[in-house]
Amino acid sequence: MYSNLIKPFFDFISALIGLVLLSPIFLLVVIFLYIANDGKPFFFQLRPGKEGKIFKIIKFKTMNDKKDSEGNLLSDAERLTAIGAFVRRTSLDEIPQLINVVKGNMSIVGPRPLLTTYLHLYNDFQNQRHNAKPGITGWAQVNGRNAISWDKKFEYDVWYVQHISFILDVKILLKTIQKVLLSEGINSDNAATIEPFNGK
Hints:
There is one protein chain. The chain has helices spanning 2-21, 23-36, 76-79, 82-89, 97-103, 124-127, 150-162, 166-182, and strands spanning 42-48, 54-60, 107-109, 135-137. By secondary structure, it is mainly alpha-helical.
């Protein structure tokens, strides 16, 4: 009952309230990123949702589109702007996803939606992460985020899907606040973002 009725209702109301309360910060970040990213403050990308249904996620754009002499995008670390690094470090880049929550594509708490190119790489265990709506924050995020291995990330995601409850969601939200304030687990040990998943 919680997963199918109460959780979606709380998600919708919480996201609406969040958008209203955070609107001043939202507008400031839009302005700064508009300047830093040549008029492109938002990042849109297709991601798999519940049961693998594809939707378009919206985030603040923390990396520019600079390319090398051959026309290839530079590495993530090289494209991460100063304001983008701050936005990512403070997790402000996640704010626009409240719009996804209002639309019903996402939940406040759930497994993070990964790239569509990973879909064919999942084994049966890993694919269980799609048995719930993806979230802005989740059990894997408060237990390491980008600083943990893919195996551990999937383990945490599936465990959450199998144990969804109101108490667990509250626990994750409280731990999320703590992690954001301490800026923990934003990056992996050797990259601006975690290494791509290759199915191993």
